[in-house]
Amino acid sequence: MLSHRIIPCLDVKAGRVVKGVNFVELRDAGDPVAIARQYDEQGADELVFLDITASHEDRGIMLDVVRQVAECCFMPFTVGGGIRTIADVTALIQAGAEKVSINTAAVLDPMIVKQTADRFGRCATVVNIDPKRVDAADYEKRTGKRPTALSADGKVFEVHTHGGRKPTGLEAVAYAQRVVALGAGEIVLTSMDADGVKTGYDLEITGAVAAAVDVPVVASGGCGCPQHMVDVLTQTGADAVLAASIFHYGEYSIAETKQYMDEHGVAVRLVE
């Protein structure tokens, strides 16, 4: 049985790790290089580094910070935020990233997904999707499109970009299928509704996307305890879990989280 990955996420703004609720109300969590080093030492399976305001501020990602993190970590390292062209992707890979996570750029120019996969392989090509539940009637009025699928509470899972600031008119499941067809080798699915709330991952949208694509899906947004990881991995078909707050503020360690998951029947790589 393949082990499920436990992935801390560093949301970085102005050179500092931050964490908020529903993509707002950000509070400081520390220095990204120091935190990355800690997670590497603690036995995290991978690390995700997201420059969360790069696209909104129309600037490139902080390559110097990426290089520093890459130099101190031996675990796989995914970087996203501010990617606009294949040249940006190349710069990140050269700076030490093993994978790149494309979000806003994949919506604005989907061919960047294909270009990245063609040059660096599907395994290096990650698309981060940020869906949010929106009113179906409002969605149809705003976009002129009838939704093809609704959530259990009658909402549309609409993809947002620019750090969750801009609705796109794209439905999350169909969009996930499109980027996978273009070459995405992994989907990081971050529920805007659950982000930072710590009441659990959005099982409905995670399960829907995982069932619709044939690449690994990383569940993101809403983790408040190890049981939430167990729930999403056993109930949705997700391959990995991403978390931030519970690790950044010392509520749970990587080791005790993995131990809990192992005791509850979830295959993980235990920390020795």
Helical stretch tally:
11
Distance between the termini: 19 Å
Principal-axis shape: globular
Helix content range of the residues, please?
Answer: 25-40%
Estimated radius of gyration: 17 Å
Q: Give the H and E element order.
A: EEEHEHEHEHHEHEEHEHEHEHH
Q: Mind summarizing the main beta sheet?
A: 8 strands, parallel, barrel
Mean pLDDT: 89
Could you please describe the fold and organization of this structure?
This protein is an alpha/beta fold and 272 residues long. It is built from 11 helices and 12 strands. It has an 8-stranded parallel barrel with strand order 1-4-5-6-7-10-11-12, surrounded by 7 helices. A hairpin with a 2-residue loop joins strand 1 (5-13) and strand 2 (16-21). Helix 1 (32-42) packs parallel to helix 2. The relative contact order is 0.15.
Quick structural summary:
The chain has 272 residues and is of the alpha/beta class. It has helices at residues 32-42, 63-72, 86-95, 104-108, 111-120, 136-143, 172-182, 203-212, 226-235, 245-248, 254-263, and strands spanning 5-13, 16-21, 24-30, 47-51, 77-80, 99-102, 125-135, 155-161, 166-171, 186-190, 217-220, 240-243.
